[in-house]
Structures are given as C-alpha cells and as structure tokens.
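User: Can you fold this complex?
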Amino acid sequence: MTAPSPSAAAALLSVLQFDRDGLIPAIAQQHDTGEVLMLAWMNREAVQATLATGRVTYFSRSRQALWRKGETSGQTQRLVELRIDCDGDALLLLVDQTGAACHTGTRSCFFRAVHGGALDRIAEPIVDPKSLYGAEA
Amino acid sequence: MTAPSPSAAAALLSVLQFDRDGLIPAIAQQHDTGEVLMLAWMNREAVQATLATGRVTYFSRSRQALWRKGETSGQTQRLVELRIDCDGDALLLLVDQTGAACHTGTRSCFFRAVHGGALDRIAEPIVDPKSLYGAEA
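Assistant: Here's the predicted assembly.
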C-alpha cells in the first residue's frame, strides 16, 4: 500500500465517525484467504500511523496506548488495503498477518464456535503463546 | 444451525463481554465466499433471538430497538455459525446473505477503499436502494 499524503490522510480521517471514546472498530482480514483474524480498535492517531507506515497499529483499550501490532510478539500485520463502511463507523483492514493474530497463539482470535448449543474450540495454537509475551498481542 | 437449548444459550451468553451500553460488535461474513459484509451491534436479546431463530437479529443503536435483519428490506441473513473471540468481546457471524447486506444496495457495507491516498468506490449497488426502504437496513 502506498502511504497517502498528509492532506489525503486528513481527508480520509474526516470521513470516519469515531465513538465517544474517540475509537472506531477495525476488522482485520487476511487479504488472500479471507480469514477474519481479529477485531480491535483504532483512534485517530492509530489510523494515521497505519496509513503512514503500512504497519497496522491499534489503540489498546486496556493499556490506553497505541499498540503497534506485533511489536512485542513479532506477529505483525502489514496493511494491504483499508476499507471504510457505508456509515464511516467501521474499518475493514485487509492485511498480511505474520504467524498468529491472537495473543493465545491461534491464527485467528475467533477460535470458538457454537455447535449444537455448546462452545467448541475450532482451532489450535500455531505458536506457543509463552513464546510471544505475557500479555496482550 | 441447530438452536441451542435455553440453558446452553445462557451458558454461551455468560461468556460474552457486553460494553457499558450492553452491546457487543458483530461481524457478518458470507460463509462460503469469505466476504465481510458488515459490522453491527447486538445486545443480549439480539444474541438470544439470533441463536433461537437462526435469523440474524441486531440491535439498532439509532433506533434503540431490535433489528431483525431484512425484516423491511427482505435482505435477510441466515446464521450458519456463530463464533466468539478470545476475549468474548466480539462476535463473528458466518451467514448466508440474501441480496445486499448494505442499506445502500451494495452487497457489502465496505464498498470504499483507500487507493493511492484517495477513497475509491470498489463496488456498485446490486439492488436499487429505493426498492429496499427509506432508512436503515
């Protein structure tokens, strides 16, 4: 992805509807397989950093800080394309995920599914979570 | 999808983390193509109704009411599988979407993408939005 100019980035940001905490939900989807990897949050600065660097950066609600995905764990997300929904209040990030998106070591955070009324694990870790870090991805 | 028993549904609901407005974000993805269709919100009652009926039901934040997807527009979503993320604070709904998920008539709400610093339309309506209704899908 080519980084937009600062004025183009400002124009894009003006389309977005941030919530009362200044955040917008962002879905990360693996660009070639279509797998939905995770849902996280961005503030204005995280959107700017993601567009400027091509490295996906979220806002961690638990740490109340920018969270450059993979900075600690090495499980980075490269931005392939950023999409905006009809109301401008949700983002879809087509990404190229290195390794595991989830802090539990699974490729996707959505590794549990309702089957016949029970919650089943549908995917196993591909990376030992202990090798990643102690906390949030 | 087989509807879970009331006790199984209650157990599932106990895993979910609703926000301070009692809502949880839900991503709808077409089950066979992998296309991400939309992001909307559910409250506890919407999750229950979706599981019980297999018809996806959201909570409309603008109308502050349950929103049985497609009730007015006919563009329904049948639930194929419900997935829950690692923290229990986001849902992924694998659905079978009839027609257009978006109130603008496009298949997906994510019909705008950042290309070279500008916002491009990447999909056209497949249904005339005037034929759907006046307001929200």
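Chain A touches chain B at residues 1-5, 8-9, 11-12, 15, 25, 27, 29, 33-36, 38-39, 51, 81-87, 90, 92, 102-104, 106, 109-119, 122 (CB under 8 Å). Chain A is about 20% helix and 35% strand.
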